[in-house]
Design goal:
The complex is a heterodimer of chains A (about 160) and B (about 800). With about 160 residues, chain A is of the alpha+beta class. Chain A has helices at about 25-30, 90-95, 105-120, 125-130, 140-160; strands spanning about 5-10, 15-20, 50-55, 55-60, 75. Chain A folds into 2 domains: about 5-80, Roll (Ubiquitin-like (UB roll)); about 90-160, Orthogonal Bundle (DNA polymerase, domain 1). The chains are: A alpha+beta (about 160), B alpha+beta (about 800). Bound molecules: FE2/S2 (inorganic) cluster (2 copies).
Chain lengths: ~160, ~800
């Protein structure tokens, strides 16, 4: 099998690996670089647990090959907090009990980060629409919606 | 009783979770996140047929592939271990193993397994295994499975029936004979499952020399699994160290001792750590399904519309489940009369094998189906009698004055106010307003329906009830174990035999212990993980049947109070005071009414661990206690076969309004209101999260999810593209109100809440859809109510 050298900026730091062509970005993050915060929920593009930001756009890392990320910037859940300070979306999930088992949380949080970057003050319908590609088996979504609203309000306060 | 009092201590406060930061930062440790040097990865060859003889299996190609360390077939496994012993003994248990031997019995059954340097290589190797099958006729339908000429899964059993019995309580025939109205219906219950987002996984390691087997997994019942695995591996239980890490959801599904055994056998064969994590297809086709079935149900009513008796013939399709069948049957006894005064009960139960995925525990096990049947019958009765469905329920509720109330089958309802719960739910939903809006919508030709369901939520399974099916003793009651320890510096650590998979136990336990020891929850660290060599545990340890409030709280309080006694004894000696004059507060022990006379917990612990001569004369050192709590309400079945299958009873009422699109059959929620009562809430924030989540499970089961098998036993739904889970757009916003009627049977007055919404939601939504389609005369008998199915009903009407 051919192997390919790739270079990716992950959470602001340069990373390199030599990978099989068939290696998914998800497996590369987890197995090659030890970033296990990105989760495999289905590995067929249906659950969103593996969501990361690729050049600031949410993608399903199980459906991308690692080689496709060559030269790109990737943000994973591990790269979101600024040191001790959680990102407002992470804080919102904490305040509003937006997670139970936590397995969907990294993908949910990154999807919500993208939503708030595009729509700073989303309605409930917009939040549900944006999150509809991410399955949560635990929360029934209600508190996740509240968490995103909390984060939007917090970001709004900061802008004001 | 109802209504929430302001909490005096930490218990009762809506505290956000102490354990969340690691999950929020992507730093949790789920089983797949753990790796060891030299670790091998496993892939499985699985049966493509529902029923076939395995005539040839040649794994030599796989074994020769570079990177492959070991291959095991069913024959290999059968040589390496004794047959699996069914947890619920049947008279002639067939010999089965973690891999198929000679015959496969469902699509997805493991046939051979490979351990290789990485998962991709292991999967490559699996493709090199040659298996030849000779197909046998499959039995897919549980009623067909009962017929004398049906294909039989296990020849040595002679039939597919695992259990058949009729339990009769009271004068059922007399009641039906005297009835003015009898409502009968046949409901088919479909297969669905909660599908935790994390799949099942295990890592096994065998220490050379000592033979100590260490297994990390996300198995949610370590107490039960430990014995099964040790027996299979032929080692004493003290040589098995079983650990559970962070678990990405459980809901009953996360149990699979055969996978633990296979990983351990591979680790033994290779001398290296071995990891196996299911992929989603394996998870959907072979871990466990909630059982499907057929329920013939009848309700007898007198001339005033009072319920006299219920009769149920219940066929449960266990798939190829020999390990733990009959659960879906037995647990129906917990809510067979639901919230109603019904004097007589007949329950004819069949537990039947078919060529499908083995059934397994799933949020509520059997109780959602039971609630669906009875709450559908009540609605059908209301329609027949021309009465309002809410009013008919009020007329039949067990009144609060009759608690504790023993149902005819021996379930003892501990506390609750069913009429009040329904009143609150109706008010929350604005029932009157909804009816008016419905009338207006109907005038416009729109299909709007209102559905309600009331439910008991039986919790804390009494393991004695299995005796009804097995006739054998040896396992009875239910309990849990806890350890509380004050460390040398005065900080507090707790460990239990249970495992957390999202419930927030570390926070809730910290709240409980903080109150007992006069500290704050952040001062208390609860071991997040289970370790059979460290945590106290017993057979019933683990996460099942909503048992936290009915057993774990007792263990935690018991251990904390024992430590408290020790603290007070040491402090009394140091302060030269009587223990009765002391109080524990703010991390210190003080003499009541004498400010300044106090010792800190650290000082007390100092005496217990280091300054040993400061202890009271003759006292033992150490500041820790273990407590093995046994719920005192459990009994064995009596001579009349009455038994409390479960020990505490929460209750709830769901009221929902839906609109059905005539053109597409699509359904839209107009409102969803829930009133619920799980006794004293230890943490209302987490309780409400459980209510949301469990209701979403029911919504998925009612509207979307179904495992579909074709006539040959092929599973057609093996991905999340065809086994559909509810998204944020499918689940409505909920309106939730809590009542608190404390249980007199649990140490803190708390009752189960984890299954809550998964029980009544099926009936509430089905009742709403039927009400919406009432102008067309449609009766709902099957779930899920997919747009296609509703459209079909509309078309036929
Ligand atoms: S794991 Fe990528 S979408 Fe499910
Ligand atoms: S919190 Fe468990 S899947 Fe979302």
């Amino acid at each position: 099998m051919t192997r390919h050298a790739i270079a990716v900026t992950v959470n602001g730091a340069p990373r390199a690996a030599t990978v099989d062509a068939r290696l998914s970005l998800l497996d590369c993050l987890r197995e090659e670089w030890g970033l296990t915060g990105t989760h495999a929920g289905c590995e067929h593009g249906a659950c969103g647990a593996c969501t990361v930001l690729l050049d600031d756009v949410p993608v399903r890392s199980c459906l991308l090959l690692a080689v496709q990320a060559d030269g790109a910037r990737v943000t994973t859940i591990e790269g979101l907090a600024a040191g001790d300070e959680l990102h407002p979306v992470q804080q919102g999930f904490w305040e509003c009990h937006g997670l139970q088992c936590g397995f969907c949380t990294p993908g949910m949080v990154l999807t919500a980060v993208d939503l708030l970057a595009r729509v700073p003050d989303p309605s409930e319908a917009e939040i549900r629409e944006a999150l509809a590609g991410n399955l949560c088996m635990c929360t029934g979504y209600e508190n996740i919606v509240r968490a995103v609203r909390w984060a939007a309000a917090r970001a709004g306060e900061r802008r004001a | 009783m109802s209504g929430r009092a302001a909490p005096a201590g930490w218990v009762g406060r809506p505290l956000k979770r102490l354990e969340d930061p690691r999950f929020l930062r992507g730093r949790a440790t789920y089983i797949d996140d753990l790796r060891f040097p030299g670790m091998l990865h496993v892939a499985m060859l699985r049966s493509p047929h529902a029923h076939a003889r395995l005539v040839r299996l040649d794994a030599s190609g796989a074994a020769a592939l570079p990177g492959v360390a070991a291959v095991l077939t069913g024959e290999d496994v059968a040589r390496a271990m004794p047959a699996l012993s069914p947890l619920i003994p049947i008279p002639t248990p067939p010999r089965t193993y973690p891999l198929a031997v000679g015959r496969v019995r469902y699509v997805g059954e493991p046939v051979a397994t490979v351990a290789a340097c990485d998962r991709a290589t292991a999967e490559d190797a699996v493709e090199l295994i040659r298996a030849e099958y000779e197909r046998l006729p499959a039995v897919v339908d549980p009623e067909r499975a009962l017929e004398p000429d049906a294909p039989v899964l296990f020849d040595e059993m002679g039939s597919n029936v695992l259990w058949h019995d009729t339990l009769t309580y009271g004068d059922v025939d007399g009641a039906f004979a005297a009835a003015r109205t009898v409502v009968r219906e046949r409901f088919t219950i479909h297969r669905y499952v909660s599908t935790p987002l994390e799949t099942f996984g295990v890592i096994a390691h065998v220490e050379s020399g000592t033979g100590l087997v260490t297994i990390w997994s996300n198995d949610q019942r370590p107490g039960l699994t430990s014995g099964v695995v040790a027996a299979a591996l032929g080692i004493p239980q003290n040589r098995l160290r079983l650990l559970a890490l962070d678990i990405g959801g459980g809901f009953g599904n996360k149990r699979k001792a055969p996978y633990l055994i296979l990983a351990a056998l591979l680790a033994r064969a290779t001398g290296r750590p071995v990891k196996y994590v299911e992929d989603r297809r394996e998870n959907l086709s072979a871990l466990a399904h909630g059982a499907n079935g057929v329920m013939d149900a009848a309700l007898a009513l007198d001339g005033d519309g009072r319920f006299l008796a219920i009769a149920l013939r219940d066929i449960v399709d266990e798939g190829a489940n020999l390990q733990n069948p009959t659960l879906h049957s037995l647990l129906k006894l917990g809510n067979i009369v639901n919230c109603y005064r019904i004097g007589a009960v007949r329950f004819e139960a069949y537990s039947v094998l078919t060529n499908k995925c083995p059934s397994g525990a799933n949020r509520g096990i059997g109780k959602p189906a039971m609630c669906f049947a009875i709450e559908r019958l009540v609605d059908l009765a209301a329609r027949r009698l021309g009465r309002d469905p809410a009013e008919l329920r009020f007329a039949n509720f067990i009144p609060p004055s009759e608690f504790p109330y023993e149902t005819p089958v021996g379930a003892s309802y501990d506390s609750g106010d069913f009429p009040e719960t329904l009143r609150r739910a109706l008010a929350l939903a604005d029932y009157e307003g909804l009816r008016a809006a419905q009338a207006a919508a109907r005038r416009e030709g729109r299909l709007v329906g209102i559905g309600l369901a009331a439910a008991v939520e039986p919790s804390t399974s009494n393991l004695s009830s299995y005796m009804l099916a097995t006739g054998k003793g040896g396992t009875s009651g239910v309990g849990e174990a806890a350890l509380v320890r004050v460390e040398l510096d005065g900080s507090v650590r707790v460990a239990t035999g249970n495992v957390a998979s999202g419930q927030g136990y570390p926070t809730v336990i910290a709240q409980i212990v903080a109150d007992e020891l006069g500290v704050t929850p952040p001062d208390v660290v609860v071991s997040p993980w289970f370790d059979s060599h460290e945590n106290p545990w017993m057979f019933s340890s683990g996460n099942f049947s909503n048992k936290f409030s009915g057993t774990d709280t007792g263990a935690i309080v018991g251990a904390a109070r024992a430590v408290r006694e020790k603290i007070l004894a040491i402090a009394a000696h140091v302060l030269e005071a009587a223990p009765d004059d002391l109080e524990l507060r703010a991390g210190a022990v003080g003499v009541r009414g004498v400010p300044g006379r106090r010792v800190t917990l650290a000082q007390v612990a100092g005496a217990a661990y280091r300054d040993l001569l400061a202890l009271p004369p003759g006292a033992a050192g150490g500041l820790e206690a273990r407590y093995y709590y046994v719920n005192p309400a459990a009994t064995r079945p009596d001579a009349g076969r009455r038994v409390g299958v479960q020990l505490t009873f929460s209750n709830s009422a769901h009221v929902t309004a839906v609109e059905v699109d005539r053109a597409t059959g699509a359904l839209r929620f107009l409102t969803y209101a829930i009133a619920h009562d799980c006794g004293r809430e230890i943490n209302p924030l987490l309780v409400e999260g459980m209510v949301h989540g469990s209701t979403a499970h029911g919504i998925g089961a009612t509207l979307l999810e179904e495992f579909v098998y074709d006539d040959e036993g092929q599973l057609l739904t093996t991905t999340f593209m065809d086994y559909l889970k509810p998204t944020a757009l499918d689940v409505p916003a909920f309106r939730v109100e809590a009542l608190e009627t404390p249980s007199p049977r649990t140490p803190l007055g708390a009752k189960g809440v984890g299954e809550g919404g998964a029980i009544p939601s099926l009936a509430a939504i089905a009742n709403a859809v039927e009400d919406a389609l009432a102008p067309l005369g449609v009766t709902i008998r099957h779930l899920p109510l997919t747009p296609a199915r509703i459209w079909e009903a509309l078309r036929r009407a």
